[in-house]
Design brief:
With 113 residues, the protein is of the alpha/beta class. Helix content is 19%, strand content 42%. It is globular, with a radius of gyration of 14 Å.
Amino acid sequence: MHTVCHFDLPSTNLEKSKSFYEKLFGWKIDTFSDEYLICMLNETESGGFYKVDKITPSLVSIYFQVEDIPATLEKAVSLGGKILNEKRSIGEHGYIASFEDTCNCKIDIWSQN
């Protein structure tokens, strides 16, 4: 089966992104270079953040699984994020929502409940 093996998210401020995602998802994020941060999920290098001057909208969506969508959205807002789409049903496939992080990057989340 083909699965997501690595993700790269743009960031206009790497330290701000590091702080936001460590607090939101509990990710371990380390500096790789002045232009890139490495994100460790389950002790595996799974993604990262790359430095950009400006975030441009993308048509690609990658969903991060969460336990509780409303709680995750609330926490994202408390950390400086902004809700883009509240929790909504996608039928038998569960629920989705999206928010904007502190650097204006759109993040999608999914939960079965």
